Amino acid sequence: MTVAYADDLKLFVNGSWRTGEGRDEQPVVNPATGKAMAELPLATEADLQEALAASQKGFDHWRTVDVNERAAILHKVADLLRERTEHIATLLTLEQGKPIGEARGEVVSSAAMFDYFAEEAKRAYGRVLVRPSGQRVMVIKQPVGPVASFTPWNFPVYLMSKKLAAALAAGCSVIAKPPEETPACTSAVMQCVIDGGVPANVAQLVYGVPDMVSRTLIASPTIRKVSFTGSVPVGKHLMRLCADGVKRMTMELGGHAPVLIFDDCDFEKTMDMVVPQKFRNAGQVCVSPTRFYVQASIYDRFVEGFTARMKGYPVGNGMDAATKMGPLANPRRPSAIGALVQDAVAKGATLKGGGEAYGEGFFFQPTLLTDVPLNADIMSQEPFGPVAVTRPFETLDEVLEQANRLPFGLAAYAFTTNLHTANAVGDGLDTGMVGINSFTVSTHDAPFGGVKESGFGSEGGPEGLDGYFVTKAIHQA
Ligand code: NAD
After folding, report:
1. Tens-digit pLDDT profile for residues 233-292
2. Pairing relationship of beta strands 469-476 and 136-143 according to DSSP bridges
3. Pocket test for ligand 1, best of 42, 175, 231, 456 (most atoms within 8 A of CB)
4. Same domain, 217 and 120
5. Closest CA to 112 of 143, 157, 70, 152
6. Are 307 and 227 within one domain?
7. Binning pLDDT at 50, 70 and 90, where does residue 323 land?
8. 252 a catalytic residue
9. 152 in any annotated domain
10. CA of 327 to the centre of ligand 1 (A)
């Protein structure tokens, strides 16, 4: 069934919106119903070559535009995103499933990204070294060049906006390939970018077969920077493609966030935060709290408190105002998560509630697994779903070792009122972000990024802008 929202399913290449016109198509499915809503046109090789040529032209122009003018345009984009929040949030919930309140929050946070980078670009200073001889060395920053950005379906509006805002602020042109699962909400973002005044060939939008699109764009000498958010295996694949052309990269890959809960934490306050955070966006969050290591003296209390809060958790269609957790985003997720739960139980974990996929859409019950053995797959594979796993611990050293045992290093959290413990976990957790008595680790003005196999490069903060510059040293006698 085609619904009115399908009017938005188009590519934006070289200044024009492109619909089907003989292109291959793929259905876009509402995850709350499992039903197709519309067909998405997929970019052809010719579309991509045209986009590449336009992107070079766009860059040659945009890099010369005064930073104050670029900033004014990006502020206008932010204003339009805020004005169109209801429209974009509705598309996002229909396509991705998250509760409409979370979708609204995602659009507003995206607007904040455009506002932030509009101003931060004005502070992208270089420096001058003055030699006794009078010689000067000027270190200047220049935009890296046309960018290819690849973003996933869990926060399609925010993650695309994050990359667009920083790259455009720095003076780069961008070919964005958001996920094929959620194309209408990301097209609506691109419409704000165009209506805000970003020239047509400076920002372009393609959907397609991901491997074909990324191979074609990355192989082109036009593209100088690749920014990817997604899974570790796809990130590694794109890094290999980038090696041939020695392209700059930002890689925001997966995580497996540990949560260290010490017996001196503010217990009830901690529990009230833990459960909604675990089930936010149905656990499909790269910084989602996953491995709950709980100090042995409060372990039983933790399991009891989590189970009680999880019971009757309002799961449903994201368009329903009462819903706190929607369906998973696509049919791959329920089966993948179900397999991880079964494996854990088979290896000795206790299922305290949930564990089942259900309904016509892609729903999965909020789930708690306790005493999960270390050899269970879920202790080392990112569940990316509404499943919490718990294990007791005794000492700080022991829990730090457990927390750092995986090859991932994106986010970690700790709950304690002891200053010494807070400092020790802040220093000792091997991740790009640490939340202490807080789950907020993603803001427009602070760096967001991982270490180890969770990737490299930061988004947000001055570091996020820096990723779209190259530095040049001009030695002048
Ligand atoms: P996937 O590995 O197939 O895809 C992950 C993302 O990469 C998707 O957005 C996809 O469109 C894109 N992609 C896939 N192949 C690509 C290619 N060759 N070139 C460019 N882009 C490509 O997995 P999936 O089934 O979509 O998601 C499963 C796993 O991905 C999750 O379990 C999670 O670990 C990870 N994931 C991470 C994030 C994140 O925010 N870091 C977001 C979404 C998915």
Report:
1. 999 999 999 999 999 999 999 999 999 999 999 999 999 999 999 999 999 999 999 999
2. antiparallel
3. 231
4. yes
5. 157
6. no
7. very high
8. yes
9. yes
10. 18
